């Protein structure tokens, strides 16, 4: 395999300059910043960025972000009654003659300023609290005709309009928006500013080519893209604001098609590389099984059969192995690796953190020795001679299995014959890395097995991975005890420490998780270091600390001491969130549990309950709890089932967050939403397949438009793959 350079792919992804040059010309005005618009100074620019593009690397929202920011409601002031027809409680736009002004007596701030108006049918009072008389005199000169628009009230039998939204002259009637879209806002940003910015953005929008299939557009009664966007900003009724409105459906479909097309392109590229049949003899596998202190679960056997059958096919394997925390994915990986080695090939096992890579090395080494599999570790820390030695034995084929971090796929790492690449805890990798890895993890037809503990609902699977084969570990190894989970306010810390004291004397080992390493902007966070110091006073040398900012060697030493039993309490940050496996540890304390997401809490808790002893998880929270935080803690207490927890998580948060895509920088869907748009997604998926079956390299008639679509929704990575050939 040639070096699959995830790192440089990431740099590419960040290098918007080069992408910019490739972007179709027609999109240039849409990718200009909001600062280009009239009336947008630095302050507004910041607010627009916060509202429209909070996760973007740029410091400014783009015109396209404004265009895709749809109104959430509508003010309908199209009713034009006479005064006698006007109905209290409703919005109305009325033509009136301005009459007498009545200012409140001096010092009587609670009495409003009133302006009497009339038409042939009756009279109406405009009411202003805390008014500025000179301003109102100018706005409403007595004797003149004005159009006023606002909500009417009945005040002791008199019709009045408090604080009209608009007052215009007859000649300015055109400027009065009878149907006024209302946009979601952020603090400090007014609706007027957003409306003005969007109006300018609409003017700048070019006519886009049609990327959708003409018959499909007709069948759905959709309009062309640019017209649809304009319509979406000019709703005529409340139904136009619904997700089911044709305008919203069309744009949601555009977005989903961009997503599905990008994934299909990646997959098609993978498939272009012919795979190879890898069939093991079972010899090494047998030796490993004999060396194991347990027998495989039925689920483990089942997924191994699926994986084995897949590898034996001459096609390239692209399979996702889902299994809840503690379900035993590592051994499945090793046995699949053994098959590849039996067939005379090499394997790679990539972990998201160095900690995890080292742990894998430690657990796998004895088993590999038993089977005669030559294993080595490669992370950023292996340097100089040691690194050279690893690399040369890898290239000469003297190594069978290389375990490591993403350093595995860096420049200069050449396998002699990579048969299988296993990627552990895949959800921790960003989407860019994922796509890059899938696309670049080998020109030699390497089989790919990705493993994740995050149970991903089918719809999300499709939008994030495309058509990947899925294997599931449905049950955990027998003999596991339920983890007794309790939520407690942090005030009970003293009591908890006492109880821990006796548990430790009985030989128990404890994880103590703190949210942040150092006091940052959140001053009340009990930092891991501080907690370590407090606990040390009470428990002395039996306590250790591990966090992400420690040098690697120190981390290793602490982990070693913990898994060896020399340390009883390990104070840690979320570095231990994934993968860490110390079966003897049975107590998990999570401080500030209210600050963690549900999936994350589930992962953390999964560090205990791995052996046959009873385990406990204590969720320490700082009252008062928000409703969502309470719901999270309750969900966790109720169940240990990762799938149920994931569903709950999906309900409590958006889909993107379940996969941690927020952090990893993948734009979430702007218009489409799942599971709501599941049907559109299915159609987009079929559509993408069909498009590529007819035009695999996107060079045909529709291709220019489709490329524009991909850029529009920032699925540029797929285009880069196309270019790379
Ligand atoms: P995860 O799926 O979270 O990566 P691991 O692979 O780390 O889980 O396995 C969790 C623990 O369960 C490990 O200590 C492992 O040795 C153990 N284990 C795996 N398979 C079995 C089994 N079939 N029976 C008993 N214990 C098992
Ligand atoms: Mg694991």
Ends: how far apart? 17 Å
The distinct bound ligands, ions and cofactors come out as: adenosine-5'-diphosphate, magnesium ion
Number of helices: 27
Instruction: Please name the CATH topology of the largest domain.
Output: Rossmann fold
* Highest-level CATH class of the largest domain: Alpha Beta
The rounded Rg comes to: 32 Å
Description of the structure:
This protein is an alpha/beta fold and 725 residues long. Helix content is 40%, strand content 17%. The protein folds into four domains: 3-73 and 185-219, no CATH class; 78-176, Beta Barrel (OB fold (Dihydrolipoamide Acetyltransferase, E2P)), CATH 2.40.50.140; 283-473, Rossmann fold, CATH 3.40.50.300; 483-639, 3-Layer(aba) Sandwich (Rossmann fold). Helix 20 (598-605) links the parallel strand 21 (585-590) and strand 22 (615-621). The two termini are 17 Å apart. The site of magnesium ion has 4 residues, from helix 12.
Pick out its properties:
725 residues, alpha/beta, OB fold (Dihydrolipoamide Acetyltransferase, E2P), Rossmann fold, binds adenosine-5'-diphosphate, binds magnesium ion
Short description:
Helices cover about 40% and strands about 15% of the residues. It is an alpha/beta fold.
Spell out the blueprint of helices and strands.
Blueprint: H1 6-14, H2 16-22, H3 42-52, H4 63-67, E1 73-76, E2 91-102, E3 113-119, E4 122-128, H5 133-139, E5 145-151, E6 153-155, E7 158-162, E8 166-168, E9 179-182, H6 191-204, H7 214-219, H8 225-232, H9 246-272, H10 283-291, H11 298-312, E10 318-323, H12 329-342, E11 346-350, H13 354-371, E12 375-378, H14 384-396, E13 401-404, E14 418-423, H15 431-440, E15 447-452, H16 458-465, E16 469-473, E17 483-489, H17 493-505, E18 509-513, H18 528-539, E19 543-546, H19 552-563, E20 569-572, E21 585-590, H20 598-605, E22 615-621, H21 627-638, H22 642-652, H23 655-658, H24 661-664, H25 678-694, H26 703-712, H27 716-724
Helix pairs in contact: 1-15, 8-9, 9-15, 9-16, 9-25, 9-27, 10-12, 10-13, 11-12, 21-22
The chain binds adenosine-5'-diphosphate (ADP) and magnesium ion.
